[in-house]
Amino acid sequence: MLNNKTAVITGSTSGIGLGIARALAQAGANIMLNGFGDNALIVRLGLELSAHDVQVRHHAADMTKPAEVTALIRDTESAFGSVDILVNNAGIQHVAPIDEFPEEKWSAIQNIILNSSFHATKAALPGMKQRGWGRIINLVSAHGLVASPFKSAYVTAKHGLVGLTKTVALETAESGITCNAICPGYVRTPLVENQIEAQAAAHNLPRDRVIREVILAAQPTKRFVEIEEVAALALYLCGDAAKSITGASIPIDGGWTAR
Ligand code: NAD
């Protein structure tokens, strides 16, 4: 389905990004991995994904640095010939009341989630327009549609990313390019494991109670969304059947935003 296409997935050494890399590689796309991780992990992921008979590389661009984000796109174009699919996925979280929110955490979250998506999209669009085909998928969150207390930076960045998604969709609507936002509820990844640990310590509660009473309180299904479910949606958005879906923010949140 995606043979001869190349996908850049930011933050794909772990969690949802890695799940999407697996799904796109299985569908035949060459993969540029990005994100932190030691050499052994990156070698292992490269071997695993290239077993699908696709080319795989890793680029160490730091999403807080605009020049490195642009280099990620340019170096992928040089290595593989094109960037056909861009998944803006890298993200971090920090939880604190706004009057105590550390300024450097605020800036890091805006840079990694929102600003890097702008820089990567800006760099990838000319090639996509030239070829008349492209898919941009922004990994947003239910927190791009609704807020929760103590997550001001994350909620702000994710709401901003919904705005970027809509604007890019309108600007590319006649170019064979789609741009959409995937908005998951809680998915069990290292990003959420860290929050479980922090909440367990803060409330002095066992982990299973934190999961049910704190983390999944807003998620009506009371279970985590699976990485593979998010990856399957991303793969669908890359296909021809999704060519008229653009500018959409698609919840995959167990009913969270239906409330
Ligand atoms: P994760 O912590 O498992 O993965 C984050 C990835 O981003 C890692 O590969 C990490 O190395 C990379 N990364 C972090 N900072 C970076 C930087 N400065 N430069 C380059 N790479 C960097 O997290 P995840 O849960 O898989 O999150 C992926 C995306 O999904 C994020 O945007 C997150 O906000 C979003 N999301 C997650 C959930 C959830 O419940 N896990 C829910 C909704 C949305």
Explain the overall architecture:
By secondary structure, this protein is α/β, with parallel strands linked by helices. The protein has two domains: 6-185 and 226-252, Rossmann fold, CATH 3.40.50; 188-224, no CATH class. The chain is built from eight helices and seven strands; from the N terminus they run βαβαβαβαβαβαααβ. A seven-stranded parallel β-sheet has the order 3-2-1-4-5-6-7, with helices on both faces. Helix 1 (15-26) links the parallel strand 1 (6-9) and strand 2. Helix 6 packs across helix 7. The radius of gyration is 18 Å and the shape is globular. It binds nicotinamide-adenine-dinucleotide.
Kindly list the characteristics that best describe this protein.
alpha/beta, 8 helices, 14% strand, globular, 7-stranded parallel β-sheet, 2 domains, 7 strands, binds nicotinamide-adenine-dinucleotide, Rossmann fold, 259 residues
Brief synopsis:
This protein has 259 residues and is an alpha/beta fold.
CATH superfamily of the largest domain: NAD(P)-binding Rossmann-like Domain
Widest beta sheet: strand line-up:
3-2-1-4-5-6-7
Rg on CA atoms, Å? 18 Å
CATH architecture grouping of the largest domain = 3-Layer(aba) Sandwich
Structural class: alpha/beta
User: What does the main sheet amount to?
Assistant: 7 strands, parallel
Task: Tell me, rounded to a whole number, the average pLDDT.
Answer: 97
Number of helices: 8
CATH topology of the largest domain: Rossmann fold
